[in-house]
Amino acid sequence: MRRADRLFLLVNALRGRRRAVLARDLAETLGVSLRTVYRDVADLQRSGVPIEGEAGVGYVLRHGADIPPLMFDEDEIEAVVVGIRFARAFAGNRLSDSAARALVKIEASIPDRIRAFGDRTAILAPDCRGESTREFGALLDTLNDAISSRRVLRLDYRNEGGDASTREVEPLCIVFWGGSWTLGAWCRLRNAFRQFRLNRIVEMVATGEIANDDPSRDLNALLREVRRRPELRAAAAARAAPENAPA
Length: 247
Prior knowledge:
Blueprint: H1 3-14, H2 23-30, H3 34-46, E1 51-54, E2 58-61, H4 74-90, H5 93-109, H6 112-120, H7 131-149, E3 151-158, E4 164-176, E5 181-187, E6 192-197, E7 201-210, H8 219-228, H9 230-239
């Protein structure tokens, strides 16, 4: 990676963050050493970029900093176009419509030469949102909204064997497994993190309760548990193996 590209990515990794980002997290994001991060931050600070913080504490970009506009290279714009195509095809209705608008804005802001790389990419996603797809998209919208607002949900759920149960869950994330979808949540019945296949949810209602902010059972805690115990991810992937397409 060119040094100029690395510095640009470093600044963008700090853009919009309310909390300081540790140097080791920046190093992991950029795929460089800690020493390189320290050196690059120091160079940016000397050049006038308003980065505050220090080693061991973390770094933050001062609020309101005037940073040059975003620009993509050929590979990056291809990745963006592919991502937007998949969002339009598979995300909820709200994100699908937003993805279409985002693509128009991106195409209007990049040079024709770069835009051509996105147009030529051969990785496609079906753009055929029929009635069943729109209904499933509405379910994704509802779940997304519940996750954002921390609403507790009551699920009537059937497991792989067809056994029914009622669960109160604190929804945390939606995972697409390439053929099936699951809801990652804290299950109050099991007092543990669980993955619920969306096509096994018979009925879903909001309880009216807002989940407390508890760092021991939020999304970061779920991801830490998966990283610490890879067998959980393997088990979740096995349970999410495609049966019938949910949409």
